[in-house]
Amino acid sequence: MSSDVTRRGPQRGRPRSERARKAILEAASELLLARGLSAVSMDAVAERAGVSKATIYRWWPTKETLALDALYTEWAAARPHPRDTGSLRGDLLSMLRPWARLAGSRPYGRVVAALLTEAQTDPVFAAEYRQRFVEPRREQAREIFRRAIERGEIPADTEVEVALDLLYGPLYHRLLHGHAAAQRPVRPRGHRHGLDGVRRDGSDAH
Length: 206
Known about the structure:
Elements: H1 3-8, H2 18-35, H3 42-49, H4 53-59, H5 63-76, H6 88-105, H7 108-121, H8 123-150, H9 160-177, H10 188-196
Helix pairs in contact: 2-3, 2-5, 3-4, 5-7, 5-8, 6-8, 7-8, 7-9
């Protein structure tokens, strides 16, 4: 895998057809969810999108980078700007619920699992995965915790990164293992212990 190409994501050196790009991403997403990454080929994506395979390779050097872009594009729609509800718990739930509903609505777990497998063997792809897929969502949550600290709702020395792991951990655990619905952990009762663990007094936020 070309490290320079992968690090920058889809190439934009020449004018690109947004219509073709959208068709490719939609075709890739449909095939990934229907068959899984291992069963998807660039030929199949090209056929479904109505473009040449060369067009796909011009923008995405591997099917893994295409899959990452397709997943990023779909999930970006469920990444609303953090809303200030006046409480840490309310802010986090308003951010997590749309994403959890989307993540649990289709078989995204096997796509994410395949991307994680690739990330374990390719450090460059791993960096791209974290930069585009992991960090944007964590940064939104960091902003929510910063507001909570400014309100005096939680201590200034709260270990925010650990708190983020506690919040997202149950979602990814259910998404990847499939033993329970991904939506379930974002209900207020499901997050109570994790949120109380980082609050100053352990009381409920309303």
